[in-house]
Amino acid sequence: MSPFPSLVTVSALILYFVVTINVGRARAKYQVPVPQTTGNLDFERVLRVQLNTLEQLALFLPALWLFSVYVSPIWGSVLGATWIIGRIAYAWGYYQAAEKRGVGFAISSLSSIGLILGSLVGIILSLIKA
């Protein structure tokens, strides 16, 4: 197996770690005490980036690995890297304004859809060959 899906996985986890740290930094910057999660819109956007990234990881990671096993580890890694770029664009845009998150969301969502559909096709083809 190629090491590239592993590299993409570690990169996605680092991305998640960074957006999680950003929540702590925003909590201090906007003076939002623990466990409060509302009250400052700038803080809430940073928190939503972290939560949405966590939600998307639950879909992305299995899709990345299924695609890499049943279709191609290289193409899985390309789609996975595209997902990471999309999530960075999503975070960058959302930190500025909620309306600016769309492009990043579209990039990461299309990457996830490609991984999921590709995995499904690869698994079905594998079953047919068996």
TrEMBL record:
Q: One GO molecular function term?
A: glutathione transferase activity
Asked whether the keyword Hydrolase is assigned, the reply is no
**GO cellular component, as recorded:** membrane
Lipid bilayer topology: Multi-pass membrane protein
Q: Does the keyword Transferase apply?
A: yes
Q: Where in the cell is it found?
A: Membrane
Q: Which InterPro entries did the record assign?
A: MAPEG, MAPEG-like_dom_sf, Membr-assoc_MAPEG
An annotated GO BP: leukotriene metabolic process
Q: Kindly list the residue ranges recorded as spanning the membrane.
A: 6-24, 57-85, 105-128
Keywords on record: Membrane, Transferase, Transmembrane, Transmembrane helix
The protein in question is named: Glutathione S-transferase
